[in-house]
Batch of 3 targets.
Target 1
Amino acid sequence: MAEEGATLEYTPTWVVAVVCTVIVAISLFVERFLHYLGKFLKKKKQKPLFEALLKIKEGI
């Protein structure tokens, strides 16, 4: 278990690097997923859903 009052200062560097890498990987995965979802919606001629997706992407 984590000690009470442990701060980032005493966290091993590799742990911080792993957490940052995971966050970046998830972000890239979501961005690629939204890109391919947009291509799929355009291919299926789902213009209202595609426009909604664009609005969501603007907010991110």
Target 2
Amino acid sequence: MQASRLKNTRRTRRKAGIRKRLYGTADQPRLTVFRSSKHVYAQVIDDSTGKTLASASSVAAKLDNGATVEAAKQIGNKVAAAAKEAGIEAVAFDRNGFRFHGRVKALADAAREGGLSF
């Protein structure tokens, strides 16, 4: 098996284990993070209705280099502001199978500083 496919398979298995325990409700929606090699994406999702309540990404923010820790911090602030605007204060953090360091941690810390609690 190729290294990239094996890496994706492992992340998918970790993701399934995390999602088994996490469920976004109207009171406490799920803040999910996805990082690619070029960009960082964050969404606040209510799983009971299947709707995205707030979102932010380095693509939508038109950041030149969306794959940096600084870009992740900006996206964390933007998603926190969008969630606050939608009336959301508490979320369940879904790291989506990624390790909690680097860009994922920077986004989470910035979202906490922006007023979200998790």
Target 3
Amino acid sequence: MTETDGALATRLATEAGRLLMKVRGSGDGPAGDQAAQVFLAAQLNAHRADDAVLSEEAPDDPRRLAAERVWIIDPLDGTREFAERGRVDWAVHVALWQRGVLTAGAVALPALGRTFDAEAPEQVSPRGKVRLVVSRTRPPAFAERLAAAVHGELVPMGSAGAKAMAVVRGTADAYVHAGGMYEWDSAAPVAVARAAGLHTSRIDGSPLVYNRPDPWLPDLLICRPELARVLLAELEGVAA
């Protein structure tokens, strides 16, 4: 290995993003999913052939459950937004899980020309009024009550990666999701958010666990660390 896992994750997310920008003109979201999947699968096979892969765009290989190293990827997070002209809230996720821990991760926001990675985390600055990013198509049923409880405002957005990176970038303060997602939706964003010093957990405060037999994750909270206690306390009431 001449390239570290972190450097590889960052390069692959960035290069897949550049490929997607070329494909995007067709306006075909599924074409983007497929193109990025083919690219990432080929690169991981070339550079980490002994590792397992869990991807949204490929059949699940149960051998990953016995593997010590598993790449968890979402070749195109936010297919709907990718297909809509002018939207920037879509992403590429590349993460590495090793023996129960996320050890590398990168999230590319190709339409913004930026890639965020766990090896070079950004410094998250405090803000004023609490801004909570939620799904633009399926926000939690309790989202408005939570925002009111913390005297905040909701910011609808596409792509889990884009929402998580909004907190990393400091343009939002928390990302709250309920109603379910898959491990590839959050693994890379969580790795980057943790490296930036942010709080990451389930909405009940329990840890996020990856590379499970069923890759479904019911919910997620990413937020500035000083907000974690108050948000978890409010979530205990509004999400019950």
